[in-house]
Amino acid sequence: MLQKTNEPAIRNAAAVGLRELGDERALYPIVSLINDPKTANNRGTLVYALEGFNCLRLLPFLVELVITGNFEVSHQAFSVIESIDVEIDSETLNICVQKLKNALLDDDVKTDLLKDLINLLYEMHTTTTNSDKVED
Question: Are the CB atoms for 55 and 28 separated by under 8 Å?
């Protein structure tokens, strides 16, 4: 039902239901829908549904959603990243921070959100020093 319906309300209800169940098999179908052009204007709830899963391996994807998504998608992706409760490795940190720094050069609207995300990512990486963080 999640991937077959064209009705956003039904799709969103199914995604939230799968979030509540916490069945990891639902993770990639939800990600697939987020990437599907047919959900371009209806992704916020789908991103919200990711919060119920272990999304560590989706971190670069979530960072991209923060950068490119509309207000709801960007903030919801940020929230999903905040819910990741494990340390991130140096390679993932570097990839994500570089994406964010590049986006800061092009986006005046999301500056605070992007800087906050850089700082959050450094906090999720235990070997980070305070000098790595971005000032407001």
Answer: no
Q: pLDDT of 99-117, one tens digit each?
A: 999 999 997 899 999 999 9
> CA 73, CA 4: separation in Å to the nearest integer?
22
Q: How far apart are the C-alpha atoms of 40 and 33, rounded to whole Å? A: 9
Helix, strand, coil percentages, rounded to 5, for the chain: 70, 0, 30
Q: Which residues contact 4 (CB under 8 A, 6 or more apart)?
A: none
User: Amino acid identity of 129?
Assistant: T
* Full-model pTM: 0.88
Interatomic CA distance for residues 105 and 89, integer angstroms: 25
Instruction: Take residue 25 and report the two structure tokens written for it.
Output: 């098999």
Sign of CA dihedral 118, 122, 125, 127: positive
What integer pLDDT is reported at residue 23 of this predicted model?
Answer: 83
Q: Among positive and negative, which fits the CA dihedral 32, 12, 56, 104?
A: positive
How many residues can be counted in the chain? 136
